[in-house]
Amino acid sequence: MRALFILTAASTLLLAACNKQAEPAQSERSSTEEAIVGHEGITFDKHDHDWGPAPAKNIYASNNLFNQKAPEIIVETWLTEEPKTEGKFVLVDFWATWCGPCRRAIPHLNEIAYVFKDELIVIGLSGDSSADKVRNMKSPVIEYYSGVDTKKRTSAEIGIKGIPHLLLIDPNGKVCWQGFPGGGENKFDSEVVRAIIDAYKDSAK
């Protein structure tokens, strides 16, 4: 088991969320997996961060970590080399190969990883039942750091209720965006990332 400690650590994702229940067998999967799932999650209006844009309106998780120290990101198996996160923003994508919206998000995350390669590390953390399920996925190709935790320990700590679920962590180890990446008040794209990074830099002046 490897644990990544994040202490110092441009397209809109118009996606639907996958229900975070037991992974269905391949033969049992249907279009219903790609429908928007009704989640119960934290909703809040107050912009309580000391800098930067407001958070997602609905985070679809039991625990609101916005403006709090990020949890330990537990990676059981790295499918790439382990990233060096010091001094960088870190974007963690909680996902699974069986989740259609998660797979559709990968090209967008590839783009974010490329555009912000000097400032941000993207990590795809799969909750699949084995690392081979990610290794054997032919398309889309993941062009950022990738790992697996079959026990979904960090996901359980956060209380994630649907995937994909993003956690953006600043270089000081604080969560500055969390939630299901969608449209409207849950918009998360290159413009949002750029605004967060610029606001962080301005706050450090």
Automatic annotation (TrEMBL):
Signal peptide: 1-22
Source domain of life: Bacteria
Pfam family, one: Thioredoxin_8
Residues annotated as domain Thioredoxin: 64-202
GO molecular function, one term: isomerase activity
Record-linked PROSITE patterns: PROKAR_LIPOPROTEIN (PS51257), THIOREDOXIN_2 (PS51352)
Keyword presence, Aminoacyl-tRNA synthetase: no
Keyword terms, alphabetized: Isomerase, Signal
Name recorded for this polypeptide: Thiol-disulfide isomerase or thioredoxin
Taxonomic source organism: Rubritalea squalenifaciens DSM 18772
